[in-house]
């Protein structure tokens, strides 16, 4: 597409964003990514934690991924007036940080502790769908 410009409001005083990755509409992992020094972006900072993930971001990420029927997606949220706002969604995203998340939420928001290979989840679902459709 061409012939338009997209502007996004700058929302000051955000020290981090929250990335929620949803796989197959069934599992979500989260991380808080801190902004770089003298910058407003958290993406690529390499500084993150898995603590204090706002459950509202997880709920919204599940809702969006399921409604859009997305197999694998990363949503980046910032908070404004205590409400999560989606600032980016990506189907191609880095996994360096998110694969170290100490667990995941299922679609009922139950927490499952441990470490998993998210790519395996995608392949397993693909194989399951192919078998079902045969």
List the helices and strands and how they pair.
Layout: E1 16-23, E2 27-34, E3 48-49, H1 55-68, E4 72-80, E5 83-90, E6 103-106, E7 111-113, H2 118-133
Antiparallel strand pairs: 1-2, 1-4, 2-3, 2-6, 4-5, 6-7
Write structural notes for this entry:
- The chain has 134 residues and is an alpha+beta fold.
- The protein contains two helices and seven strands; from the N terminus they run βββαββββα.
- It has helices at 55-68, 118-133; strands at residues 16-23, 27-34, 48-49, 72-80, 83-90, 103-106, 111-113.
- Strands 1, 2, 3, 4, 5, 6 and 7 form a seven-stranded antiparallel sheet that branches.
- Strand 1 (16-23) and strand 2 (27-34) form a beta hairpin.
- The radius of gyration is 16 Å and the shape is globular.
- It starts with 15 loop residues before the first strand and ends with a helix.
Please tell me how large the radius of gyration is.
16 Å
Which structural class do you get from the secondary structure elements?
alpha+beta
The total strand number stands at: 7
What coarse outline follows from CA principal-axis ratios?
Answer: globular
The end-to-end distance, rounded to whole angstroms, is 38 Å
- Average per-residue pLDDT, rounded, comes to 88
Proportion of β residues? Answer: 25-35%
Task: List the total number of helices.
Answer: 2
N to C succession of SSEs:
EEEHEEEEH
Q: In a few lines, what is going on in this structure?
A:
With 134 residues, the protein is of the alpha+beta class. It is built from two helices and seven strands.
């Amino acid at each position: 597409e061409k012939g338009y410009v997209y502007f996004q409001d700058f929302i000051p005083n955000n020290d981090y964003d929250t990335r929620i990755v949803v796989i197959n509409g069934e599992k979500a992992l989260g991380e808080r990514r801190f902004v770089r020094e003298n910058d407003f972006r958290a993406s690529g900072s390499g500084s993150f934690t898995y603590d204090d993930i706002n459950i509202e971001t997880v709920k919204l990420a599940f809702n969006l991924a399921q409604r859009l029927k997305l197999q694998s997606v990363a949503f980046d949220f910032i908070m404004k007036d205590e409400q999560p706002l989606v600032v980016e969604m990506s189907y191609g995203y880095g996994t360096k940080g998110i694969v170290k998340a100490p667990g995941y939420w299922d679609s009922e928001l139950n927490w499952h502790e441990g470490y998993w290979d998210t790519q395996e989840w995608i392949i397993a679902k693909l194989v399951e769908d192919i078998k079902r459709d045969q």
